[in-house]
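<purpose> Linking amino acid order to shape
<body> The protein record starts here
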Amino acid sequence: MPWKVLTPMSQKKEFIVLASSGQNNISELCRRFGISRKTAYKWINRYEAEGESGLAEKPRKPDSSPNETPLECQEAIIEIRKTFPTWGGRKIRHVLARFDIDPVPAKSTVNSILKRNGYIDPQESAKHKKWQSFEAPAPNDLWQIDFKGHFEAARKRCHPLTVLDDHSRYSICIKACENETRATVQNALSEVFRTYGLPGAILCDNGPPWGDPDGYYTRLKVWLIRMGIRIPHARSFHPQTRGKLERFHRTLKADVVQYCRGLDLDKCQSRFDEWRVIYNMDRPHESLDMAVPATRYRLSPRPFPETPPAVEYPPGDHVRKVQHGGFISYLGREYRLGKAFCGERIAIRPTMADGILDVYFCNQKVSRINLRGDRKKH
């Protein structure tokens, strides 16, 4: 077994003592200790020049390497990571390209630097899976909306309301709300609509204030439909339907929410506003080929109507007004739509199926009537 790799310091010292005595043949000593003459004379020369410290193992890595990442680049990588703790090698590399750094290191090199400096858990990459999800074809075709849970703020809880454009991943809104009521959401959305215009549709889950546990429409949903916004719902127990928003919430929690606990709502809002600018304008997005959401988003051409437009239906529709309790009458029978429609005008239209009619509110189908079914049926 080669002594030059595994022999302890005591054996090295023994060799030097024996070789320096002048009483031993160097070639024979090398054979006995299992080393080459080249190695023997290297240790002899080091011992004569440096003493016993010269026998210590020297690092095999060269003092410098032409392929080593420059120190200033490594420092820039660490600084970006400190500023944005959730960013990985690909995002950081893309940001480095914006500055006067040449050449820009590969993503793997950036990740190696982060791991070497303790900023990435070696097992971290195995924890994340890329979302495979549908993408709306254009900005404002579809928004996604939800609350990011809630957390303890000063004297009350903070309920972050988030709205995300499905196509561009542009963060439309992060609102620090004190509750999750219809009035709070409607006021927040009114502000959003005044700035960004109306979307074609808003995807939400099945819970309040946009959904009803019994499957009926809510007043908030009726208000949105009145303005020409379709309201599809995510499938129950399938959060991947809203994968973009789920991923956005993870990033929001890691970057901002965890640092807002105990702050009052105004301070929470300030932090949300600051981070939203970074997310939209600075943070590269992998699903956008490392572009930022602002490069793919544009304002909706549909302005927000301060007064909802009048409800009109084409000739041939059977128009009814929804009565107290959410019921409509048709051919002497009552059918329930839900209390959210009380006072609104709806349209009943025949279908290709015998005895089946569709019920519309504005441009959205909200129910179906089976003339052969039971009365007061939703």
User: Anything to note?
Assistant: The chain has four domains: 3-55, 71-127, 143-295, 318-370. The domain at 143-295 is CATH 3.30.420.10 (Nucleotidyltransferase; domain 5). The longest strand covers residues 157-165.
